[in-house]
Amino acid sequence: MAVKKIAVIGAGVSGLGAIKCCLEEGLEPTCFEKSRDIGGLWRYEETPESGKAGIYKSLTCNTSKEMTAFSDYPIPDDYPNYMHNLKMMEYLRMYARHFGLMKHIKFQTKVLSIKKRPDFSSSGQWDVVVEADEVQKTYIFDGIMVCSGHYTEKYFPLQDFAGITNFQGRYLHSWEYKHPGSFEGKRVVVVGIGNSGADVASEISRVAEQVFLSTRKGAWIWNRVWEHGNPMDATLFTRYNRVVQKLYPDCLINRHIENKLNLRFDHANYGLLPQHRIFGHRTVFSDDLPNRIIIGKVQIKPNVKEFTSTTAIFEDGTEESIDDVIFATGYTLSFPFLNDDSTILDSQLSMFKFVFPPALEKPTLAFIGIIQPFGAIIPTSELQSRWVVRVFAGLKKLPSKKDMMADINRKKQKMTKDSMESIRDKGRVQFIDYMDEIASELGVKPNLLSLFLWDTKLAKEIFWGPCTSYQYRLQGPGKWAGARAAILTQRERILKPLRTRVLKHSQISLSPLLWVKSICVVIFFLVSMLVITHITSN
Ligand SMILES: Cc1cc2nc3c(=O)[nH]c(=O)nc-3n(C[C@H](O)[C@H](O)[C@H](O)COP(=O)(O)OP(=O)(O)OC[C@H]3O[C@@H](n4cnc5c(N)ncnc54)[C@H](O)[C@@H]3O)c2cc1C
Ligand SMILES: *[C@@H]1O[C@H](CO)[C@@H](O)[C@H](O)[C@H]1NC(C)=O
């Protein structure tokens, strides 16, 4: 049988993982990347071309390195836990070099359209039209992996802001924001409190005269530096915590985490308290914001009702004179090369496990990395790719269209129940659950029970430790001989970059007294069950 040719659209983190997975499965990948380099969002550019993800110069990961790494290529032990975008690029270049990915990428080649071939129902093949040097070319492919990212189409609802066209100062989308220099001494409104809004407001407030951060809904603010100075995700995203979360009703878990975040600063006193519970909404990371608020450089404001030529009037009636406005209103998902083909795409929610459009006669089109896990993207999109190439290679079958639709509808219902977000923000999934779900499709989910019997040391780290992606390389297709060692040394890699002045008797441990904690949890659970049964029986 001829080797299957696969088109990969985009050479960001998702595309790089996709190419690697194709090679691993013996498929022949061709990656089309419209810019001249790899990295996608993570490659900082002073003046990005339109349609490329834009980041600010200071952008630093909000996921820690052990949670962010590709599953068979740990990030070097001396790299900081939260990497600056330049460090992330270094890692991606090493990954591309190590697995020989560069020769499969055609740079400065933009995919214009993808269309089913006339014999699609039997061949599953696609016509892919690309453009390079203003010349168009059509290729035939047996499968397509869409890895084009979702932070390129600005969401810029200017019509929602009365009077903005009369405003005489400068206004821009956070996409265009690079560094704070030009805001020195200015009075600035930042509209929207996502990760970008919080970052940009905090950064500008170091040089600006005054920053107003305007938010309709408020937000829960997380910090990267968690208890004992450990990375937040590496501390909280453990299988053990997931089990505990499932044991308790959501409201108790929400309350517990909310109390924790309020311990750092009271969200109500700081004007940030949202209406929504913490897990019903997208997360905002900012280690800086409360520090900027308490010194008065950032003021939290409600929604802007109206702009005049020189001021912003907020919904509480207050008016502030301002020089600049930054709209940190986010992005929308867009796939221009699909030509709005609605048989493929109504919304990301309508895809089987957010990857396969269910209505196609042949499963030869896949979307990688369009969900937003509460957690890192690399491991998620890599696992999706590993699954997809198995399907493309004919080694795995998808369920019937009917079963896929049933699964999709079940998820949709659950999401509308759990989340109060606008449609464009949907597609949030629980990190560990989603990873396990895809891993089960693939047959690479670690079997904890047998591990506890045969390799207790490893099983303990998998259960209590950070749920890193190396665990999906222990067994099944794509098994990696280094996985066990990578898991057992992950805490050393977390500590290594911190130990730049080693103390003689320092005994730092990531999760002190875990066993005491767990016994407390079990006792607490039993007691609360007793209390609940007691109350309900009365
Ligand atoms: C400010 C910000 C901070 C973030 N921080 C984190 C973080 O700390 N950790 C984390 O896990 N995630 C983070 N994310 C999520 C982020 O989306 C992912 O980390 C990751 O960059 C997504 O990679 P991607 O490859 O899917 O998309 P992208 O990085 O956007 O790459 C897509 C690539 O496709 C190319 N392309 C698009 N269309 C075409 C076409 N038609 N033809 C050819 N090429 C095309 C683009 O040029 C680009 O190179 C962050 C996102 C933002 C916006
Ligand atoms: C990190 O920031 C990006 C961009 O705002 C966001 O989409 C992602 O969800 C954040 N990650 C986490 C774990 O919250």
TrEMBL record:
Main function: Broad spectrum monooxygenase that catalyzes the oxygenation of a wide variety of nitrogen- and sulfur-containing compounds including xenobiotics. Catalyzes the S-oxygenation of hypotaurine to produce taurine, an organic osmolyte involved in cell volume regulation as well as a variety of cytoprotective and developmental processes.
Report whether Lipid biosynthesis shows up as a keyword of the record: no
Output a single Gene Ontology CC term carried by this record. endoplasmic reticulum membrane
Q: Does this entry carry the keyword Acyltransferase?
A: no
- Catalytic activity from the UniProt record: hypotaurine + NADPH + O2 + H(+) = taurine + NADP(+) + H2O; trimethylamine + NADPH + O2 = trimethylamine N-oxide + NADP(+) + H2O; hypotaurine + NADH + O2 + H(+) = taurine + NAD(+) + H2O; N,N-dimethylaniline + NADPH + O2 + H(+) = N,N-dimethylaniline N-oxide + NADP(+) + H2O
**What organism is the protein native to?**
Phodopus roborovskii (Roborovski's desert hamster)
Recorded hits in Gene3D superfamilies, A to Z, give:
FAD/NAD(P)-binding domain (3.50.50.60)
**A single Gene Ontology molecular function, please?**
NADP binding
**Transmembrane regions listed in the UniProt entry:** 513-532
**Taxonomic superkingdom:** Eukaryota
- What general EC class does the enzyme of this chain belong to? oxidoreductase
**Enzyme Commission designation:** 1.-.-.-
A Pfam family found in this protein is: FMO-like
Report the subcellular localization.
Endoplasmic reticulum membrane
Membrane topology field: Single-pass membrane protein
Query: Can you name this protein?
Result: Flavin-containing monooxygenase
- What's the cofactor? FAD
Q: Which family does it belong to?
A: Belongs to the FMO family.
Q: Which UniProt keywords apply?
A: Endoplasmic reticulum, FAD, Flavoprotein, Membrane, Monooxygenase, NADP, Oxidoreductase, Transmembrane, Transmembrane helix
Q: What is the lineage of its organism?
A: Eukaryota, Metazoa, Chordata, Craniata, Vertebrata
Name the major location: endoplasmic reticulum
